[in-house]
Every structure is written in C-alpha cells, then in structure tokens.
Design brief:
This protein is α/β, with parallel strands linked by helices. The protein is built from 9 helices and 20 strands. Strands 2-1-6-5-7-8-9-10-11-15-14-13-12 form a 13-stranded mixed beta sheet. α1 runs antiparallel to α2 and α3 packs across α4. The protein starts with 16 loop residues before the first strand and ends with a helix.
C-alpha cells in the first residue's frame, strides 16, 4: 500500500504560463473556475484537474484507459507526479521556458502530466481541443508536444511546428513510422501506464542513420531500474513514482537494466499446436500489407487447441479477402506458424472511451458472427 509521509502543496514555477498568462496559485485557481464555468469540455476537464492539483490533498484519483483490462480508478500521489515531471524534463532536455502544446484530454494521466510538467518545470503551455488533427489550427512553433498515434498520423504535414514529440497511448504502426522518417521533428514512442505516472521509457522512432540499430530499444528514464520475471515480463522498480515494484504483463527482451525490446502482451500470447505466437510481433510484420485497422487473435480449434486468426476492420469483400490472403502467404518474413488460419472482417471494432481497441470484446463479435 502506497503512503506519503509528508506533503506540501506543490509550488508553481515562476516561469510557468498557460495560454500566455503568467499565473500564481490564486490566479490559476480563478482561471480554473472560469474554465469550469464558461469553457469548452476540454477546458472544463483542465479546470477540474487544476483545482484538484492546487488542493491540500496529497493525491489525485485517475482512471486507467481500460485497453488491457476493465477501467479502474487508482490513487496517484502528487509527489510521484512531480518526480515524473522532473525525470521527463531531464530525459528529453525540456526544462524551464519550454514552449509546449497540450492537445490531449486532461481526464487521463497523459494530459494531466503535461500540465504538471508545465507547472513544475516552468513551461509556457497552450491548450487546444484534443481533436484527431490538433495542429490544423496551430500557427506557431512549439518545443514539445504529446500525442496519440492517430493524432500524429493526422499531423504529418504540420510536424514542422513541433521540435520534440512524444507519442503514447497505443502502438505506432510501421506505416506511420515510415511516414515520419526524415522529418526534422524528433519523435519518440513512449512506454508507460497510469500506475507508472505516464511514461517510464522512450525510444526515438525517426532516428539518424547511425542511431537506428540502438533505437529499437526503449530506454528507461532516470531513477528507473528494469528486470524480468519467470514469464519474461517486465518488472519496473521506480521508487520515485511508485513505492512498489510494478509487475507488468508485457513480454520483453531485456538488453540491460535500462533498455528493453517490447515483444507483446502476456495476455495475448497464443499457444497453437504447442508453438507460442506473439500477436504484436505478427502484426508488425503485416502492417504494410493491410490498409485498414486489424489485429491478430485466436479461436478454439479441435486440432491446434487455438488457431491463429486475423481480424480486419472493414466490410466483407471477397476480392479483398483473396488479395490479403495471397499477400500474407507470399510474405517471406512470416514463419508458417504465423500465417493466420482464418481472416474475418468486422465493420467496426469495439473501443475504449479514448479510442483503444478492445480485442477480447471485438473477438466476441467474431464468435457471434460464426455461431
């Protein structure tokens, strides 16, 4: 059980500004009340969090995304959030007077942490609506921004407005990685979860040629120590973020106590005819073949126990089915065990509130479809 022995209300950095306003504690409270009373939904969310942050409570309550299980509310200590903000500032070299754009919803930890970093590190942060194309109404350059993959995908033509970008909340597809190669913006994929107070590791996904080999690995932020358990799942020791060692269900190849290669979720591993298959690895190999959203899963099979299946988000089309099937069988990087036994089309995947695919529930649609 986490406890914080002492707590004092966090100071607001003297260089902090929000929407071009330099505000102390009392002025920031007034702005928060104004957001709640007169603002749009995204401003109301920001206002509610700011009042929570400025209260004398030592913690806030945050809801997890629900992408790997049922959404739940957890307690996150403010001091841990401050420690996380400082680690981000050091790792990405974004200290005081960094200009930052907040285009994520503040009801989740990623959006909250952008505001915390701004207040603690002394950033000049601007808020815009958390749309899928947040840069379309932006006409100035920023040092730092955080997005989800869908936002990045819709911002390619305006990435010159951001110097450093972190991307989290979902897997960055191979197609999207291809699109950002050669752009000047430094784009980093992050690894983390609500329990780790946002990200604890990152990797550059558009590295310079000399950095490409090492860029495959996630590198941990300061004061983070990594190990694995007997399942080869990642263990995170981050005393400044969580008093307990965090046991994940993420299977990794651990290079050092600070670097790892992510392979997939333990929950998703498929045992087909005695062969362990990692859906996320297979999905990476299929990314450039399939133009729609998809995922790899399994269904019960009399002979294999579980058979590998491919689920694609689109209406059924026989020509498309045959074309995809032929392309998969021709793909040399797939082993014979990684070729899906069946391909299913679902018009619309089931998602969490923040747009992540709920695999098990979507697979349920396939099962109902084939009963």
């Amino acid at each position: 059980m986490q406890t914080m022995s002492t707590f004092s209300i966090p100071e607001i950095h003297e260089k902090f500004t929000i929407n071009n306003h330099s505000l102390g504690r009392d002025d920031l409270k007034r702005m928060a009340y104004n957001f709640i009373k007169e603002g749009e939904v995204y401003e109301q969310e920001a206002g509610n969090f700011l009042l929570d942050w400025l209260s004398d409570k030592d913690h806030i309550v945050v809801q997890t995304s629900g992408s790997t299980g049922k959404p739940k509310k957890i307690k996150v200590f403010k001091q841990h959030m401050i420690n996380s903000a400082k680690a981000t500032g050091k790792f990405f070299k974004v200290e005081e007077e960094t200009t930052a754009l907040l285009c994520l919803p503040v009801n989740y930890i990623a959006g909250k942490m952008m505001l915390v970093r701004a207040m603690i590190l002394g950033w000049k942060i601007d808020l815009v609506p958390p749309r899928t194309n947040p840069l379309d109404t932006v006409y100035k350059q920023y040092d730092f921004c955080a997005m989800v993959p869908l936002q990045l995908d819709n911002s390619i033509n305006r990435l010159h407005l951001i110097k450093k970008m972190i991307v989290g909340g979902g897997t960055v597809s191979e197609h999207l990685k291809e699109l950002i190669q050669g752009v000047k913006t430094k784009v980093f994929e992050t690894y983390g979860m609500t329990e780790t107070v946002s990200h604890i590791a990152a990797r550059r996904i558009n590295p310079k040629k000399k950095e490409k080999k090492d860029a495959r690995f996630f590198k941990a932020l300061p004061n983070i120590t990594l190990s694995i358990d007997d399942r080869n799942c990642l263990l995170i020791k981050a005393p400044q973020l969580n008093t307990e060692t965090i046991v994940t269900n993420d299977i990794v190849d651990l290079k050092t106590y600070k670097k790892f290669l992510w392979k997939g979720r333990f929950d998703n591993v498929i045992n087909s005819g005695g062969v362990k298959l990692y859906p996320e690895e297979i999905e990476t190999k299929l990314q450039l073949l399939i133009g729609h959203r998809f995922f790899i899963s399994s269904l019960p099979d009399v002979v294999l126990g579980d058979k590998l299946v491919l689920i694609i988000e689109r209406d059924y089309d026989k020509i498309a089915y045959l074309s995809i099937q032929e392309a998969i069988h021709s793909l040399e990087i797939l082993s014979k065990f990684e070729i899906p036994k069946e391909i299913y089309f679902i018009p619309q995947f089931i998602e969490t509130d923040n747009g992540k695919v709920q695999r098990s529930m979507t697979l349920g649609l396939v099962k109902n479809q084939n009963q």
